[in-house]
Amino acid sequence: MVFKLEGKTLPVDVPFQTSDGTNYPANWLRLTTLDEKKAIGITEETD
Prior knowledge:
The protein has helices at 28-31, 34-39; strands spanning 2-5, 8-10, 16-17, 23-24, 43-45. By secondary structure, it is an alpha+beta fold.
């Protein structure tokens, strides 16, 4: 699976920041549900 936010691919286990300045830790993508990801605008696509 590939996660995308605002058109950019989010690598798993790498911290990231949203356009509103919110920082997320490296393990956030692994620890959250799909609903939690969708709530901030992350989409999940197949490789």
